[in-house]
Amino acid sequence: MQMTHERSSRRRRPWRWLFLFAGVAWLNVNLLPSGRAEGNVAEIKFTLWGSPFEKQALEEAVKSFNATHPNIHVTAQHTAYEAYGEKISAMLASGNPPDIAYLDYAQAFPFADAGKLLDLAPYFAKQPADKSLLESAYYHFDHGKKVLGTGLATGIILLYYNKDLFDKAGVPYPPSKAEQAWTWDQFVQVAKKLTKDKNGNDATSSKFDPDNIVTYGLSLPQDWWGYLTFIYSNKGGMVNEDGTEPLINKPEAVEVLQKLRDAIFIDHIAPRPTQNKTLPSADILMQTGKIAMTFNGMWRVIDFSQLHIKWGIGALPYFKEPLTIVLSVPKVIFSATKYPDQTFEFYQYISDPKRVALFKEGLWAPLEKSYFTDPALMKEWLDGKPGVYPPESRDVIVDYSLHHAAPPPPQYWLRNIDRIMNEAITPAMDQLWSGKIDAQAAADQAAEKMKPLLQGRW
Amino acid sequence: MHHTAPYEQRLARTKTKFLVSRERREMIWGLTCVAPALAGFLFWQVGPILGSLVIAFTDWTVANTPHWIGLSNFQRMLFADPLFYKSLSVTGIYAATGVFLNLSFALALALLLSQKIFGLTFFRTIFYLPSTVPAIASSVLWLWLFNPEFGLFNSILTGLGLPKQQWIYDENSVLASLILMNLWSVGPLMVIFLAGLQTIPKYLYDAVAVDGGNAWHKFRFVTLPLLTPTILFNLILSIIDTFQVFTQPYVMTQGGPNNASLLYVLYLYRKAFQEYDMGYASALAWVLFLIIALISFVVLQTSRRWVFYVGGSE
Predict the structure, then answer these.
(1) What is the pLDDT of residue B16?
(2) Is the predicted ipTM greater than 0.85, yes or no?
(3) Which residues of chain B have a Cβ shorter than 8 Å from any chain A Cβ?
(4) Are B173 and B164 in contact (CB under 8 A)?
């Protein structure tokens, strides 16, 4: 009895100590960081998503920034894209937003509208003239009066192709200069020669078997930029500039949609884009010889450069005018930050090709105009790491970004864009890609569903 | 008798006292042990649930200051949102067909796997195994199987000389494909059925045999009635599960093509985390809760008529 009693009381005591210890530890964890922030060091929180590679490159940039800026301390928090929106929402709702962040445009505009984001226009106005950015860099709001941020980089859409498949089919490579770009119809003819069935016949042959295609000439992206780029090239659009009237069912847009649909069901040069998700990414498909060409973002140069195939980039085919779309994720500063100036300093730091390796690695193209005009800077970016950018980059990436960029897509200015895409555009495009209805019917349906959702522009 | 009473009373008192203190001690320890789980439940589940009830009556979009807008979200849902009805009908079809097929399939498997055959545990494991695969992983796997160009299913169809199907890429077949895929993971239902089958006394089957009944009679008049409590349990479990399905459409179809697989929770997620319409999304969540509660209530009420409990009542 005595022993049991003794043992049980002895057993109870460590528990008490444990609780006390845990309590003290908890207090420490919660009180210490705020105590440290009282000093001269500006604590800045930076949230981002991105591949492990992107994460690593930015963490290195953060490290070197912290090492060279003793009065600023940046902490990077990486979250997978799928959970990122939820995380930022939770941070904002709990009154604890990051200082600087990647932010999806669907969130960025409502946040900016509610005054949660810092207007960066005055900050950019103070920058020296030789540091000026390409106009396509900015996310404007409040009808062009304010800037909620810039893109992470200048992301244009371009044509990637597998040189081996071109050589095998005896077809010349796609041109790289805008002046020599193929028209859509010329492009389709080339793609047909590259599309092979299991007997080795190409799509121009009368013996071609469209039910047993081994290599497709083209892979169409499912994303909106996959068709909007060409609608812009045909001088059409998705909505008018005020964001009040759909243009998607006007002849310019419908012509393009019909040609893209024909590429799948009549020319047989491309698989349906709806099934892209089931397939490996375009670079892998190209490596395995399943596709010869694809339209994709400049940010895929990094992936293609790591494949052991002969690949190249070319000018996009065009309808009325050779051009491309520029798009990139907004990078913003939250207005709740205690250190706007220091945060903006870091903001500029991670846009600087001299500081972040992602530019010469082929994920990002610079925002700063001088990199597109000054040969020395251009060389630093494009030749900084041999074997990444192919030689034709000076035409396809530089010249197109500078002279052939379309006006900003609706994602840069249209209100309610997410619902418009989810409820009007995507369901109609699903039906177009299924081959059940033609482009006019799909576009009319999209336009009809769009009308009640249009709320003008930001 | 007379003077032993105080002693007995004292004894009884001590006993009660002892019991009370012992019970109390156990109670305290019990509460201490469940406290973390209980606190977590209150803080992470009940709290947000009640919070979402409040949010459902506001126009909160995360960025703005929420305003009380009364029943507006519910009005919008009922009178101005065709996608609400679309997602409701998609979910209704998915749930009705899915529940029926899941239960039948799981029961059929359980019956087969309760036979005395060679390698029984092996087969039980095999059929349960898919349920241990995380939903995302199995979704990705099935994406490959469903691929119209290079997928296994279409290879089989081509091999049989049948036309290729578009599976999840066609409005008309996407829901059927998802239901088919769901049959792959009926493992837990099957295990519960197996447990239910074990409780059926063998002498009842012997009685049927003595009376000249065959296998069908055994199933119809012994197995099925005695299994009804298990069926009820699985039915409710299955209804709740299918109404809340999310991962598969999220990973595989995003609700497409043309919203043909816009299941309710996916629509809710889209409202909450793509469009950040938290007020409306919370309203959607509560409506779903009411629907599931109502269906479960109806099922439980009618169960009195068809569920048979050994020993008369529950």
Answers:
(1) 62
(2) no
(3) 61-64, 83, 143-144, 146-151, 164, 166, 169-171, 252, 256-259, 270, 273-276, 278
(4) no
